[in-house]
Amino acid sequence: MRRRLLGAALAVVLTLTTVVAVGCGGKDAKVIAQAYLDALVKGDYPTAYSQFTAKLRQDITADGFAEAMKALEKDKGPVIRYDIKDVEYHGATSTVITVVLYRKKGNDAETSETKQYGFIIEGGWKLGNY
How far is CA 108 from each of CA 25, 38, 40, 111, rounded to the nearest angstrom? Predict the structure, then answer.
């Protein structure tokens, strides 16, 4: 009887811990996404880069990222605004956020592009792709 009560109590604690971690974690991931996206809108590539995971920073340098973003701006126009469309929680340590990026190049019509950004826990939420 005592084992069953302990087992049931442990199951409740684990369930509550998971719900809290996912709920809070997803919210925190959204805050990091907004910081990254706000930095893109401002053209503040060092701040955007600071949201990257260590693995992503190994794949591209800060200068390489800034060059890639500037080339994209030249080709498609700068990001002028964004809209977060969806936040998907994948357990307590992974979140995918779907965003529409709006760009405008010169006098051309505004264009939009839908992207998905993956966030993982790495000493706090960090961006795993750009």
Answer: 39, 22, 20, 9
10-residue stretch averages of pLDDT, the chain, 130 residues long: 42 32 60 96 97 96 97 96 95 92 94 96 91
Q: Which domain holds residue 25?
A: 2-127
Prediction pTM value: 0.77
Those residues with Cβ within 8 angstroms of residue 123's Cβ, 6 or more apart along the chain or in another chain: none
Q: How far apart are CA 52 and CA 62, in angstroms?
A: 10
Distance CA 4, CA 7 (A): 5
If DSSP codes are grouped into helix, strand and coil, which group holds residue 53?
Answer: coil
pLDDT of residue 27: 65
Joined together, the tokens standing for residue 31 give: 């805050």
CATH number of the domain bearing residue 118: 3.10.450.100
Number of structural domains (the chain) is 1
Distance of CA 122 to the CA centre of its chain: 12
Joined tokens for residue 20: 């809290």
